Amino acid sequence: MSDISSQLQEQILTAATEKRPLQIVGGGSKTFIGRQVEPGQEILSLDSHSGIVSYHPVELVLTARAGTQLIELEAALAEHNQMLSFEPPKFGGTSTLGGTLACNLSGPGRPWWGSVRDQVLGIKMINGLGEHLRFGGQVMKNVAGYDVSRLQAGALGTLGVITEISLKVLPKPSDSRTLVFECDADEALSMMNRRAAEPKPLSAACWLDGKLYLRLSGAHSAVAATAGYWDGEPLEYADDFWQQLRDHQLPFFTTAGEQPLWRFSVNPTARMPKLDGHWLIDWGGAQRWYLGRAEQGQVDKAEMERLAATAGGQVSLFRGGDRTAEVMHSQPEAMQRLQQRLKQAFDPDGLFNRGRLYSWM
User: Fold this and answer.
1) What is the pLDDT of residue 150?
2) Which of 10, 52, 203, 257 is most deeply buried (CB count within 10 A of its CB)?
3) Non-local CB neighbours of 182 within 8 Å, separated by 6+ positions
4) Do 181 and 158 fall into the same domain?
5) How far apart (Å, rounded) are the C-alpha atoms in residues 257 and 254?
6) Could you give the number of structural domains in the chain?
7) In a domain, 22, yes or no
8) Which residues of the chain, if any, have pLDDT below 70?
9) pLDDT at 232
10) Alpha-carbon distances of 350 from 28, 64, 290, 319, 347, rounded to whole Å
11) H helix intervals, 171-297
12) Among candidates 107, 8, 109, 121, which has minimal Cα distance to 56?
């Protein structure tokens, strides 16, 4: 555990002087996300910039350096029966806090417990001029106005190098159980939305291979009463199922090979599109994963975007396919200009993760 922010600043300033682009890497578990970076980019590693800076269990606030591994954070929180409520996915044992925020990754409980973006109170980051800046703080009242801290969620490191993150944590629920129901996708969506509207301790809802999984979490009395009312088949080893879903270890993901994996973020009430292939529905219908006939390319990507827009959302090519082409949902010209202005403000020389998010960034 160490603070290497001064070395990071030095490397950035040297790169700026020599006009050399930098590829930001933490634990290296999420390098597949986004476009393939342009060749010749120098590695800027945050692997050793790690460690918990402060942790106040009573105040439910934790601050850690960006290279801190998630398993270290979770171990420290477990000692006080607390957790990262956004259930960050781990695509390897080296997954870090900074990479999780940069990729805006959250687990099955996201609609009920919030996203990683929702839990961030403040950050420190180094911009393209080598300036080490602080945004936000360690309490919600400091997060006001133009929230640069949360702007980093999903930016894939294109706006700067996150060095430190302060975020809210939550107590672990005292009880949790999962109910399973046999149904098709349309029936599952209907039940997900109906159950989500009830004042019950629902904390995750997923459909896969003809089965709907509903997780209940909270006080023992509330969980037990709801489980009895909703009926359903109790799932043994439920924690393993949700962990495998979170970390993409279910056969749906592991047997996909190089097949393109599309991630739809849509209105949870939207009907399933008429598209042959294999689907997994998560987040109570708001996140849908698709494996099927569509190959990467302008025509098929346009079809995916049309389907996503019809469902009130967006789509991205999460894995596989042609990573040199655009993989994120196309942006209107006005949004492109805004994002380019942000890029210019934070990284005027275009040093960081050039082309990772979009080819025009």
Assistant:
1) 85
2) 203
3) 210, 211, 212
4) no
5) 7
6) 2
7) yes
8) 138-146, 293-299
9) 95
10) 21, 27, 33, 25, 5
11) 185-196, 220-230, 238-246, 251-254
12) 121
pLDDT number for residue 1: 75
**DSSP state letter for 49:** S
Single-letter code of the amino acid located at 197: A
Judge if 146 and 190 occupy the same domain.
Answer: no
Would you state the structure tokens that stand for residue 322, as one six-digit string? 């042609």
- Residues 160 and 357 sit within 8 Å (Cβ to Cβ): no
At 107-140, the pLDDT tens digits run 999 999 999 999 999 999 999 999 999 998 765 5
Distance of CA 358 to the CA centre of its chain: 18
> How many helices (H) and strands (E) in the chain?
12, 17
| Residue with tokens 């956004």, as numbered in its chain | 86
CB neighbourhood size of 51 (10 A): 14
What pLDDT sits at residue 138? 63
Place of tokens 């196309």: 330
User: What is the structure's pLDDT at 92?
Assistant: 87
CA distance 37 to 355: 6
The answer to whether residues 357 and 329 touch, using CB atoms and an 8 Å cutoff, is no
Identify the CATH number of the domain in which residue 158 sits: 3.30.465.10
